[in-house]
């Protein structure tokens, strides 16, 4: 799963590893008296009525005599139950736990038995479980059926043991319309004609795997494919989209060969399909073994309309989900508390593979922004350890957050650098061989890694995964030289007043600009005979922030132009965060930016556009925002002048992305020349796909009612869900409040591509958080919106995090009390803390920046 949203409740201080183990945490797991071995599943959906009939015959191993078989089932109606073809059972359901209990009058004897269940259910609109996605095509209206089960939604498709540690094999059979294609984890072995309208498709038996990785898709599909290392790699798209799947097929073919080599274990299935949904699915994309299901934006690349950002984005999501075929599918965590073994590694691997296959993108440098998301989340009162306590299905769903993904990836990046890339890869290869088709906890990996590396890997990993919080390396410069001391950073300076002291063993590089790096393993305090200017965390590999005294910041400023881009980013990111938290002057980040040459690495300038927008969001309309925007335009304009507003021969991919970012940001800041240029491009319909897409974003944001209606008409007329989504996404950025209100109504309807509601609302909330809170949040549960329960909570939290009026805190708390169970409240509790933070920034931080900007103007 690739989508990340920020969530969580404070877990303060150090938590012992034993307290986080599945055994001690008493998770909501099923009894171990009955174990599934194999599922023989037959499904017959009615695509028009949105219902289906199912039958599953499960080979079970009974470990000790029992009258009851307890399994997972949600929203399924059991029609008939039998054991070994003879004995029947009475059935009871527990909707809170998502369980069915089959009670037999006499005990079932130990040994293997066959449990048969005939059942039926309803096909939903929410993109979890078994669901439908509708769209228009040149051949008329079309409907795709698909499944999406992580973490605990397979139970909505079949009665099963829906836990990652309960692996079994699966044989799937599906009755589908003759003119539709069915796709599952394994290849088709036989197709039978059942009637003039229906065929029965039999799929090969899967290897042993977890229930959440099972997949079935049915639709008006076409498939392109090729053989790679003995595996048939395919891309499955809606009819007419094969040209848009060609790029993904090319990159997936390269990635399969690369991953086979990196992991040292050949991909074990005979085929790997990448399946495009005609819209967006919950979680963005899903790593089903052998049949990865992607939101259309994550897989399709239209040579005529897609952008460089789309190109790199498709690669990253394809590489992320393909990495899961080993980290997650072949070797799976035992329980959701070790989810980072899946998601942290896939997020790290997507960058590592991009640097190997497309070094020109400098994805490792771009990944500093990924790490920033983890660091920001780790300073909030809503953080938690990477290895966290998970006891319920709701809590498992909350675990897919920025700590698991982004902090996890940052910690792995640090360990890979500390161990050495070749040694790290050898450790991964041994882990794959040792645990193939099995389940693990994180120490299974790191014990192997420590044995290979001969370094204290377990101790370092333990410090960063069992403790919540971001290390703060505090620098002082006594006469004897450099003094480093560990602390913990809090987004709110009042945080942690009563917390116990924490320590981390931090692999750290220190350098004098222009000199060699000194490598140390920092723990608590260290003194070194170095004097300013000194760069701590040179290379930015350590998962930490660095707090310099102001004199040391000033000493580094002259060296900024000559620093490596990664260190320019490190200084900028640390000073931004520390300025917001009140630990340093908020103008420091802009003082560093002023030292950047106009031809600095495009990735560094791109980061500055994000920072400029971040500050702008905290301003209300008025004189201070006007002054800030003037300053920000003057800061960014030289970088745009350096590369030009129009493409040039020889532009690199990063220059193209920077041009887009600068134009979009300067347009938002009110640069009249930029806005006029983009309107002219849009009106003329000239320029590249890249230019047209950027112009669409700028024009949509600045649109008046006539322009809005024109763009909305284009969105409604296009039949292609991918192109339709492009227009609606752009309209989600509209600045005019009255038009934003109209767009909220549209986003909550079934007019937009399936599953895209939340993303459009997120965009609207960036500029209109209070409006979206009042107009959208009360309607998120409406069936027409098709938003799952978990997505409703995440979307509400994302909107609430942008609010700054303290009066809204009571509203958020009331929503929590009304809608969210105790174990799933982390995102919204974090949002309440974010409201306090936003208010503090507006009241205390912005006036300091305003004073500095005024002083710059005077000079």
What does this structure look like?
A hairpin with a 2-residue loop joins strand 8 and strand 9. Helices cover 42% and strands 21% of the residues. It is α+β, with helices and mostly antiparallel strands and 859 residues long. The strands form eight sheets. The protein has a seven-stranded mixed beta sheet, with no helix packed on it. The protein has a five-stranded mixed beta sheet with strand order 15-16-17-19-18. The radius of gyration is 27 Å and the shape is globular. Helix 4 (308-323) crosses helix 5 (340-357) and helix 24 packs across helix 25. The chain is built from 28 helices and 28 strands.
Radius of gyration: 27 Å
Q: Give a count of the beta strands, DSSP E runs of length 2 or more.
A: 28
Helix coverage percent of residues? Answer: 40-55%
Separation, N- and C-terminal Cα atoms: 51 Å
Secondary structure category? alpha+beta
How would you write the strand order of the largest sheet?
Answer: 4-7-2-1-10-13-12
Query: What coarse outline follows from CA principal-axis ratios?
Result: globular
Please state roughly what percent of the residues sit in beta strands, choosing from under 5%, 5-15%, 15-25%, 25-35%, 35-45% or over 45%: 15-25%
Q: What is the makeup of the main sheet?
A: 7 strands, mixed
What's the number of helices?
Answer: 28
> Uncertain spans, ≥5 residues at pLDDT below 50?
3-26
């Amino acid at each position: 799963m690739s989508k990340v949203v920020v969530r969580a409740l404070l877990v303060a201080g150090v938590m012992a590893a034993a307290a986080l183990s599945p055994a001690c945490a008493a998770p909501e797991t099923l009894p171990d008296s009955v174990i599934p071995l194999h599922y023989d599943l037959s499904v017959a959906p009615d695509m028009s009525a949105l219902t289906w009939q199912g039958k599953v015959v499960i080979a079970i191993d009974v470990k000790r005599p029992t009258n009851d078989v307890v399994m997972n089932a949600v929203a399924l109606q059991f029609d008939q139950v039998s054991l070994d073809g003879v004995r029947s059972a009475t059935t009871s359901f527990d909707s809170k736990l998502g369980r069915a209990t089959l009670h037999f009058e006499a005990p079932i004897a130990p040994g293997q038995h066959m449990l048969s269940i005939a059942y039926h259910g309803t096909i939903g609109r929410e993109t979890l479980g078994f669901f439908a996605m509708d769209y228009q095509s040149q051949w008329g209206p079309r409907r795709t059926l698909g499944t999406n089960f992580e973490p605990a939604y397979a139970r909505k498709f079949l009665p099963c043991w829906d836990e990652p540690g309960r692996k079994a094999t699966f044989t799937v059979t599906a009755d589908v319309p003759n003119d539709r294609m069915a796709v599952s984890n394994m290849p088709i072995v036989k197709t039978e004609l059942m009637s003039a309208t229906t065929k029965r498709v039999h799929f090969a038996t899967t290897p042993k795997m977890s229930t959440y990785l099972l997949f079935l898709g049915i639709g008006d599909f076409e498939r392109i494919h090729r053989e790679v290392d003995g595996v048939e790699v395919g891309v499955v798209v809606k009819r007419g989209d094969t040209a848009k799947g060609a790029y993904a097929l090319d990159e997936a073919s390269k990635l399969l060969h690369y991953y086979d080599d990196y992991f040292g274990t050949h991909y074990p299935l005979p085929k790997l399909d990448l399946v495009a949904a005609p819209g967006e699915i919950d979680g963005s994309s899903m790593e089903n073994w052998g049949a990865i299901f992607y939101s259309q934006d994550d897989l399709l690349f239209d040579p005529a309309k897609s952008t460089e950002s789309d190109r790199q984005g498709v690669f990253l999501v394809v590489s992320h989900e393909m990495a899961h075929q080993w980290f997650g599918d072949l070797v799976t965590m035992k329980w959701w508390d070790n989810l980072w073994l899946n998601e942290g590694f896939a997020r790290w691997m997507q960058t590592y593979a991009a640097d190997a296959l497309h070094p020109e993108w400098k994805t490792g440098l771009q990944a500093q922004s990924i790490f920033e998301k983890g660091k920001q989340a780790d300073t909030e009162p809503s953080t938690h350890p990477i290895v966290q306590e998970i006891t319920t299905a709701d809590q498992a769903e909350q675990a897919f957050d920025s700590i698991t993904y982004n902090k996890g990836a940052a910690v792995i990046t640090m360990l890979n650098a500390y161990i050495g890339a070749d040694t790290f890869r050898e450790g991964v290869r041994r882990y794959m061989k040792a645990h193939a088709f099995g389940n693990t906890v994180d120490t299974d990996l790191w014990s192997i890694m420590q044995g290979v590396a001969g370094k204290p890997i377990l101790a370092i990993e333990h410090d960063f995964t069992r403790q919540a919080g971001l290390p703060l390396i505090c620098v002082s410069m006594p006469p004897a030289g450099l003094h480093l001391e560990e602390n913990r950073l809090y987004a709110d300076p009042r945080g942690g007043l009563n917390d116990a002291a924490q320590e981390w063993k931090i692999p750290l590089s220190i350098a004098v600009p222009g000199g060699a790096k000194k490598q140390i393993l920092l723990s608590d305090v260290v003194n070194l005979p170095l004097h300013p200017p000194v760069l701590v965390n040179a290379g930015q590999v350590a998962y930490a922030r660095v707090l310099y005294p102001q004199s040391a910041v000033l000493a580094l400023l002259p060296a900024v132009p000559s620093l490596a881009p990664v260190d320019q980013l490190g200084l900028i990111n640390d000073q931004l965060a520390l300025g917001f938290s009140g630990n340093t002057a908020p103008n420091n980040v802009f003082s560093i930016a002023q030292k950047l040459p106009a031809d600095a690495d495009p990735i560094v300038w791109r980061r500055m556009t994000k920072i400029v927008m971040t500050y702008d969001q905290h301003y209300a309309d008025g004189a201070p925002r006007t002054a800030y925007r003037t300053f920000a335009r003057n800061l960014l304009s030289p970088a745009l002048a350096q590369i030009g507003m129009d493409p040039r021969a020889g532009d690199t991919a990063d220059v193209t992305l920077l041009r887009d970012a600068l134009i979009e940001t300067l347009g938002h800041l009110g640069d009249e020349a930029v806005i006029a240029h983009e309107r002219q491009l849009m009106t003329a319909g000239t320029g590249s796909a890249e230019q047209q897409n950027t112009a669409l974003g700028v024009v949509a944001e600045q649109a008046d009612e006539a322009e809005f209606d024109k763009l909305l008409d284009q969105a409604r007329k296009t039949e292609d869900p991918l192109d339709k989504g492009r227009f609606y996404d752009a309209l989600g950025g509209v600045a005019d409040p009255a038009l934003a209100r109209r767009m909220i109504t549209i986003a909550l309807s079934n007019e937009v591509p399936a599953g895209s509601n939340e993303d459009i609302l997120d965009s609207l909330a960036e500029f209109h958080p209070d409006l979206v809170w009042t107009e959208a949040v009360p309607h998120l549960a409406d069936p027409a919106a098709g938003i799952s329960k978990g997505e409703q909570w995440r979307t509400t939290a994302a909107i609430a995090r942008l609010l700054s009026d303290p009066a809204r805190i009571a509203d958020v708390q009331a929503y929590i009390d009304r809608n969210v169970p105790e174990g799933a409240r982390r995102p919204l509790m974090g949002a309440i803390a974010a409201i306090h933070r936003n208010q503090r920034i507006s009241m205390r931080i912005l006036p300091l920046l305003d004073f500095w900007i005024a002083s710059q103007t005077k000079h």
